[in-house]
Design a protein that fits this description.
The chain has about 325 residues and is mostly helical. The longest helix is centred in the middle third of the chain and has 34 residues.
């Protein structure tokens, strides 16, 4: 039996970092996810198995958001509960992976696309709900489809960039072992060693490489900073001076709240409010206006920070740590 101290340390070890955790997650999802992770570890359940289960829960929850007739609206509440359950599993798979050291790129990809399945189901449900329940959208079907498609595209960008900035922060905070930051340069090398004899693995590798390339394309100043650090101090986070890592953390940490707000909790609160208000289109408007504004602000701030650090490195402000 574990002591309370050992239990507490195990829980802390299952978290990414206090820098990147959100209040709602710390108070709700992480404790529940830790309980699921402990149960899964006891029965030999892998992180990927939990992720797959979350896909079924999230999709089922999304489908239940279609129902709009008053006698059936209790199904919306069930859908909300299923989505919360799915997200607790989404928390548990990462916590279990950190507890048991079961890291894999496939797991990272699967974890990333699980939420996509949830929201695809949600988007279709909201669209058909509006078409069948709203006089305006019955007459202007194209309008709700345009809103949904644009919101879906923006959602994908928001989630991708939130994850990328979070991993970049963790890279300097915890090094390679505590971060899942990738580069197209490394992924190209990895992809070269994968043949079409394993088509699923090859397609997955190419898809993930292109996903990473899109993240890098949106962050030119960040890529310039990575190149400058590598050219000046060498390969890997361990080669970067601790003074730089501390300075980057200090400027990046205040922006981590935006990465969290662009991920799950804030958008789901908006989703639930729009459903309970019986105006699902408001959720699409929230994504298109509020979350996109937040995304643009986050990108601009990070890029400015990175340009500033490149200038400081060129001025010789940071010196390599003594071995």
């Amino acid at each position: 039996m574990r002591s309370f101290k050992e239990f507490k340390e195990a829980y802390k070890g299952s978290l990414k970092s206090m820098d990147t955790e959100e209040t709602i997650d710390l108070m709700f999802y992480r404790p529940i996810g830790f309980a699921w992770a402990l149960l899964a570890a006891k029965f030999g359940i892998t992180p990927n198995m939990i992720t797959i289960a979350s896909i079924f829960l999230g999709v089922a929850g999304g489908v239940l958001f279609y129902f709009y007739e008053p006698p059936m609206m209790w199904l919306n509440i069930v859908g909300m509960l299923l989505l919360v359950w799915a997200n607790s599993f989404d928390s548990a798979d990462g916590q279990l992976a950190r507890m048991t050291k079961q890291y894999s790129r496939l797991g990272r990809i699967l974890d990333g696309v699980s939420g996509d399945f949830w929201f695809i189901a949600i988007y279709f449900s909201l669209v058909f709900r509006e078409i069948h329940s709203s006089t305006f959208f019955m007459e202007n079907v194209w309008a709700i489809w345009v809103m949904a498609v644009l919101a879906g595209i923006c959602h994908a960008k928001q989630a991708a960039m939130a994850d990328y900035y979070r991993q970049f922060h963790l890279y300097f905070l915890k090094g390679e072992e505590g971060s899942e930051l990738d580069s197209t340069e490394q992924l190209d090398r990895d992809n070269a060693g994968i043949t079409w004899k394993t088509p699923l693995k090859k397609i997955t590798s190419i898809t993930y490489r292109n996903y990473t390339a899109q993240q890098e394309g949106i962050t030119p100043a960040m890529q310039a900073l990575r190149s400058k650090l590598k050219a000046t101090f060498g390969e890997g986070a361990a080669a970067v001076p601790q003074t730089f890592r501390d300075a980057f953390r200090a400027k990046s940490k205040p922006l981590m709240k935006y990465t969290n707000m662009l991920s799950f909790n804030t958008r789901v609160i908006a989703l639930f409010v729009s459903i309970l208000a019986r105006m699902p289109w408001l959720y699409f408007a929230f994504e298109l206006v509020v979350l996109n504004t937040m995304l643009v602000y986050m990108i601009l701030r990070h890029e400015r920070i990175c340009r500033g650090f490149v200038a400081e490195i060129e001025e010789g402000k940071y010196v390599a740590d003594k071995k």
